[in-house]
C-alpha cells in the first residue's frame, strides 16, 4: 500500500503551496521535486489565497514565523479549507516560545488541518501544553522508545480523535496515527538528526503524499515517513569516510529522487498498533 | 562571441545587487561567485539605493515578493536606472496571482529594464496577460517546440521592440531576442527542471553577463543562457547512478565554476532567427 | 588548547540563537550541527527574548538586515546581555550602506558584545568609519598581509580594548585579538572566498565555541577560526577535478563534522603577537 501511495505522487505531481521557514526552504522545494511533486512558496497576504487555490495542498511550517507570515498562514489555511485541500501543520519549536505555542494551537483550532507532523516535544506541547522543547529539537524526556511505544501510540490516536488530523510524531521511532490505528515505523538513521530540516523536508513531502492520496491520508502520511526513513538508510549506506552531514543531506534527497514504490514497500519496517 | 562575453565576466568580476526570493537565494549567490562575479543581497528600503549604487547591475526576482520587498525593488530599480546600470527582471510566477502579474508589469513599465528572463508562461503573461502559469512552472500549452519556434521568436522580438528589453524565454528550447534578432538555443538537459531555481540562477548569472558586456547585451544574455545549458549537459554527464536532483544542482554550479570561454563557444548550439 | 576548545563544543552541544541573513542561513545551521552544537533561528520581536533565554548564546548577523529584524536583534541582544550569554556580532557589509554601518555600531555600543567577526573592511568601518567595503567583500586596500600584520594586530588589540569584545578579522591571514594578545592564524585556502557565506558560517561556529568555553573566549574564537581554516584546507585537498565552489562548500562543512580536537591542534598554524 505504501507503494501505491508513492506511485500516486509520481503520477499526479501535486502542486504544493508552502509557507515555511527561510532556513530549510530550499531543501523543501528540492525534496518536493525529488518525489515528482511541484513546490510553490508564497507568503504575502495579498496573494496567498489565490496561490493556494491553484495548488493541491498547503504546507504550513512555523520555523521562522513572524507577524506577517502568521497572517498569511491563516488566510491561506482558511481558503485551502474552503476548497477542501489538505493542510499540513509543522509546529516547529512549539513550546520554545509562547508565540510558537499559541500560533500552532490557533492554526490547529481555526483551520481544517489534515495532518500534523512534529517531534514528540512539539506534539506534546500542542496536545497537552507540557512538552519539554529544547529549541527546535525534542527533549530527551519526551523521546519515544520501545518501552513507551504503546503509550505514545495511544496518545497519538487520542490526539487524532480530538483534532480530526492525522498525527505524525517523528523521531528514532515514528508514529503516524488516526483515531483508530497507529503505524509505528522503524526506518531511518540516527545521523538524520545531524542535518537541519529533515523534519521540514518530511512535512513538505508528506503534504504531497496526502494530496495525491486523498482517500487514505493516514497511509499516505505513513508512506511518506517510511520513504524518508528508507532514504535516510540508503543515503547512509552510500556515504564515504569523508562525507559528513551536508553530503548526507544531499544524498537523502537524491535517494528520494530515485526511490521506487517497490523498494519502499520492501524496505518499510512498521507495525500497526 | 559567447567566449568573449564569458571572459569579460571573469575579467570584470561585476558586483550584482540581488533582490530575490528566499528559496533559491543561496544558489544565486554561489552561481555568481562561480562565474567570478560577486553577489550582494539587500532589500531594506532604507539601503537599497545606496547598495545598488555601488554595484554594476541589479537582478530583480519576484519569487517570494511581499509588500516590503516590492517597495525595495522599485526604489532600487529607479536608482539603478538613473545610474545607467542594467536591470534584469525575473517575473517568477507572473500569472499565478494578480499580485505577481501586476508587480511584474509595474516593474517593467516603470523601470528601465534591460532584460527579462522567464519561462514561456510568465513572459506570455507579461506581454499578453494570458499565460497559463502553473505555479512557478510553464504550462505545457505554452511550451516552445521546434514547430512553434518561429512564432515564438517573432513574439519575443515584438515584445523586445515594445519594451526595449532583451527578452529571454527559457525552457526546453531557449529564445533570447532583441527587436532585430532572436538566438534560439538548444543546450540544456530535461533534468534541469527537477531542480528548484535553475531559472533564478540563470537570471542572476545573466545580470552579471550583461553588466560585463554593456555594448552587446543580447549576445551577453544569450551567452549566459548557453553557458547554463552547456553546464547542465556537462553536469548531467558527470552524474553517477546514485546522484539525484540535489547532486545535479551542485554539479551544474560547479561546471559554471570551471567553464571556459573556449568550451562555451565550442559546445553552444544555437541558430539566429 | 584549541583541542580542548573544540572538545568542549562537542561535549556541551550549545544551543545557539541566530538572527541572521536568509542567504547563508542553511549553511549556518548545518555547520552548527556539524560541530555538534544546535541552531535555532527566530527573529520575530514577540519571541526573540524568550528564544534567546533558552539558548547559550546569540549570533547577530546583519547580512540582510531590515527594520523588523534590527528591532529583533536589539531586543534579543539586550536579553542575552542580561542573562550573561555571549553575543557575537557579524557586521556584514558595514561600510556598504549607512544603514549597515549605523546598525552595526549601535549593536556594538548598546549591547554587551562578546566578539565581533568580520573582514578587514567591515572591522575598519566599525572602528574608524573608513573601511573601503566592496559590497560584502573586503576591499583589497584593507587586506592584511605579512607586511601589515603587526600593525593590524595592534589595531585589533586596541579595538578590543575599546569595546571589550574579542575582535576577529578574517581574510587570507586571520587575526583574533583581545586587548593583550593577538592570534595570527595562517590556515585556510584562497578558494574559500569563492563560496558565499564562509564568514557567516564561521561566525555561527565561533558563537558555539565561545558558548562552550566561557572562561577563554579569545582562545575559543581563535580555535573556531583555525578550525574553519583547517577544514578549508582539508576540503580543498579532497576536491576532484570536476568539483567547484558548491562541492567545496559542502566539503568544508563535512570536514567540520569530522574534525577532531587532536587534528585541529596538529594542523593549526598561528603565532601570537
TrEMBL record, chains A, B, C:
It comes from the Bacteria. Signal peptide: none annotated. Pathway: Cofactor biosynthesis; thiamine diphosphate biosynthesis; 4-methyl-5-(2-phosphoethyl)-thiazole from 5-(2-hydroxyethyl)-4-methylthiazole: step 1/1. Substrate binds at residues 41, 197. GO terms for molecular function: ATP binding; hydroxyethylthiazole kinase activity; magnesium ion binding. The keyword Thylakoid does not apply. Its cofactor is Mg(2+). ATP binds at residues 117, 170. Its EC number is 2.7.1.50. InterPro entries: Hyethyz_kinase, Ribokinase-like. GO terms for biological process: thiamine biosynthetic process; thiamine diphosphate biosynthetic process. Gene3D superfamilies: 3.40.1190.20. Keywords: ATP-binding, Kinase, Magnesium, Metal-binding, Nucleotide-binding, Thiamine biosynthesis, Transferase. It catalyses: 5-(2-hydroxyethyl)-4-methylthiazole + ATP = 4-methyl-5-(2-phosphooxyethyl)-thiazole + ADP + H(+). HAMAP family: Thz_kinase (MF_00228). Catalyzes the phosphorylation of the hydroxyl group of 4-methyl-5-beta-hydroxyethylthiazole (THZ). NCBIfam families: PRK09355.1 (NF006830). Belongs to the Thz kinase family. This is Hydroxyethylthiazole kinase. It comes from Suipraeoptans intestinalis.
Amino acid at each position: 500500500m505504501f507503494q501505491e501511495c508513492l506511485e500516486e505522487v509520481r503520477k499526479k505531481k501535486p502542486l504544493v503551496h508552502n509557507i515555511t521557514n527561510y532556513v530549510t526552504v530550499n531543501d523543501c522545494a528540492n525534496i518536493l521535486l525529488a518525489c515528482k511533486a511541484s513546490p510553490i512558496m508564497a507568503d504575502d497576504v495579498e496573494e496567498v489565497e489565490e496561490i493556494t487555490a491553484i495548488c493541491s495542498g498547503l504546507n504550513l511550517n512555523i520555523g521562522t514565523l513572524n507577524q506577517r507570515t502568521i497572517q498569511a498562514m491563516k488566510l491561506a489555511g482558511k481558503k485551502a479549507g474552503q476548497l477542501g485541500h489538505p493542510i499540513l501543520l509543522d509546529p516547529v519549536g512549539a513550546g520554545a516560545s509562547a508565540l510558537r505555542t499559541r500560533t500552532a494551537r490557533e492554526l490547529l483550532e481555526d483551520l481544517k488541518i489534515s495532518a500534523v507532523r512534529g517531534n514528540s516535544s512539539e506534539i506534546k506541547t500542542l496536545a497537552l501544553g507540557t512538552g519539554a522543547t529544547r529549541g527546535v529539537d525534542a527533549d530527551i524526556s519526551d523521546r519515544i522508545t520501545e518501552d513507551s511505544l504503546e503509550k505514545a501510540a495511544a496518545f497519538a490516536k487520542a490526539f487524532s480523535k480530538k483534532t480530526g488530523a492525522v498525527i505524525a510524531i517523528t523521531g528514532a521511532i515514528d508514529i503516524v496515527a488516526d483515531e483508530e490505528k497507529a503505524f509505528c515505523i522503524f526506518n531511518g538513521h540516527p545521523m538524520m538528526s545531524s542535518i537541519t530540516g529533515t523534519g521540514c523536508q518530511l512535512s513538505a513531502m508528506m503534504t504531497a503524499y496526502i494530496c495525491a492520496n486523498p482517500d487514505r491520508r493516514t497511509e499516505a502520511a505513513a508512506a511518506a515517513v517510511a520513504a524518508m526513513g528508507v532514504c535516510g538508510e540508503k543515503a547512509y549506506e552510500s556515504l564515504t569516510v569523508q562525507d559528513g552531514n551536508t553530503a548526507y543531506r544531499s544524498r537523502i534527497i537524491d535517494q528520494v529522487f530515485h526511490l521506487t514504490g517497490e523498494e519502499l514497500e520492501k524496505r518499510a519496517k512498521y507495525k500497526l498498533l
